[in-house]
Design a protein that fits this description.
- It contains 3 helices and 24 strands.
- The relative contact order is 0.10.
- It is mainly beta and 370 residues long.
């Protein structure tokens, strides 16, 4: 089955003529393999209500001898995150042609080995509605907490329903809805910085930091990348494959990129994209944004400093040396001495002194008689 596919299956169920009226449970086992080849199995229970035959009319009330329930229950998403509170929507609809009144819904959670794998985190477990017209629906959204120890398991929640039909007759029903507990993956970045912190237009830079899985389930096939934009140029080093990230694991990363020469001064957003799979074969993509500071004047200030000095036209320095010897604190060099540092002058003096000593010794040797 592809992602988003919906399959409808029909199972014919035989009810014995001697079966008593009431609620019976049927277990449904679903086995499947994920895209990674891992095998999973889920078991859910559904409730089936058995009542007497409705074909024979009741001559006293001129109504069917049994009652056909007007209640339909739908759960759009029955996945609960382990170790967390999940707000789950439960939709109750009146599918009958007549209204019902005094509707009361009560959630009951089932215990397993004297513990509750899922339970109501807060608030009341009972909801009351005065009236529900034909085809009208109401939604209840209980906050359900799930235990970490029951990850990858399924459990039912029982709903007790009571209401009055259009004739004022009281009815009680018990329904069950199944929920599946799954592990949680929570990928976040940590200690993210730019190197260098301020970048000139057209310059190269790196985005450095770490990622942390704050969930309780491992992330698989995780990939980090920088998204290209009008002012950000990406390359092969702008993407990094991490692989599997276990819970509470901190993994470093370093991504390189280039800033466009047309980028303006100021701050521009950099988008960091996380892409990963869970163990159930689902793919997730999330993004985080960081502000990058662009300053075109980093290189322009040096070149303009040299051009504004009259003496600089007479100084023929090799390429790049002007950026080394020119101090940004000086508006203009006062003379050639400013281009030499003190260690350089001392070294030059020592070299000249050694040459002079060698010349004197050589001259003395030449003046000695044979």
């Amino acid at each position: 089955m592809e992602s988003g596919d919906l399959k409808s299956l029909t199972f014919k169920t035989y009810v014995s003529p001697t079966a008593q009226q009431g609620l019976y449970f049927v277990s449904i086992t679903v086995s499947y393999r994920t895209a990674n080849g891992e095998l999973y199995q889920e078991i859910q229970e559904i409730g089936i209500v058995v009542k007497e035959d409705c074909s024979a009319p009741n001559m006293v009330w001129l109504l069917p001898a049994c009652w056909s329930s007007p209640i339909s229950i739908e759960v759009p998403d029955n996945i609960l995150q382990s170790g967390r509170v999940t707000k789950s929507d439960i939709i109750i609809q009146n599918i009958d042609d007549e209204p019902i009144s005094n509707l009361v819904l009560d959630l009951q959670f089932i215990s397993v080995q004297n513990s509750f794998p899922i339970f109501l985190n807060s608030g009341s477990s009972t909801w009351k509605f005065d009236r529900l017209d034909s085809l009208e629906s109401v939604t209840i959204s209980p906050d359900i907490f799930t235990s970490l120890s029951f990850t990858d398991s399924s459990f039912p929640i029982q709903i007790s329903i009571s209401y009055l039909d259009v004739n004022g007759i009281h009815h009680d029903e018990i329904r069950q809805i199944g929920f599946t507990i799954r592990g949680n993956i929570d990928i976040e970045s940590s200690s993210v910085t730019f190197s260098p912190i301020i970048i000139p237009s057209g310059g190269n830079a790196s985005l450095i930091g770490s990622i942390l899985n704050m969930g309780d389930k491992e992330a698989q096939f995780l990939t980090l990348s920088i998204a290209s934009s009008d002012f950000i140029i990406t390359n092969s080093e702008s993407i990094q494959y991490i692989g599997e990230v276990d819970p509470d694991s901190l993994v470093p990363f370093s991504l390189k990129f280039q800033v466009s020469e047309s980028s303006p001064n100021g701050q521009i957003p950099i988008e960091l994209v996380f892409s990963y799979d869970d163990s159930y074969g689902n793919t997730y993509t999330i993004s985080e944004f960081f502000n990058l500071t662009i300053d075109r004047s980093i290189f322009d200030s040096i070149s303009s400093q040299v051009q504004n000095c009259p003496e600089s036209n007479n100084l023929l320095l090799p390429g790049g040396l002007s950026q080394i010897f020119l101090s940004p604190q000086d508006d203009c060099p006062n003379g050639i001495s400013q281009f030499f540092s003190m260690p350089l002058m001392i070294g030059t003096g020592i070299f000249i002194f050694i040459i002079v000593i060698l010349l004197i010794r050589r001259r003395s040797n030449n003046n000695q008689p044979f």
